[in-house]
Write a structure and sequence with these properties.
By secondary structure, this protein is an alpha+beta fold. The protein has one domain. It is built from four helices and four strands; from the N terminus they run E-H-E-H-E-E-H-H. Helix 3 runs antiparallel to helix 4. The chain is globular, with a radius of gyration of 14 Å.
Length: 98
């Protein structure tokens, strides 16, 4: 959410990863203290999400974030009260930019 202009406290960070063999080894090495997922409700495959990603930086490193549209899809698919406000605010922000 912060990447798309709506920073807020969170309980965790979700990381969507490619499942090819080369990347599996990299993920294992990096994932000692990270929750890793290979799918997120509302988004579809890693390849589709990666193709639509939004690029930014995190502590000086270039990283990919879910696109704004995919972020909205995950919020709507989760259908949790804490996500309803996020989905509304992100959609409203995008509407105002147009």
């Amino acid at each position: 959410m912060a990447h798309h202009g709506l920073p807020r406290a969170t309980n965790d960070v979700d990381v969507l990863v490619a499942t090819d063999e080369r990347n599996r080894a990299r993920v294992r090495a990096a994932a000692a203290h990270v929750d890793v997922t290979t799918k997120i409700d509302g988004v579809g495959s890693f390849d589709r999400a990666y193709a639509r990603r939004s690029v930014g930086t995190f502590f000086g490193h270039r990283v990919g974030y879910l696109s704004l549209d995919d972020m909205l899809r995950t919020k709507r698919a989760a259908n949790r009260p804490k996500d309803w406000g996020d989905a509304f605010l992100v959609a409203e922000r995008a509407r105002r930019r147009r």
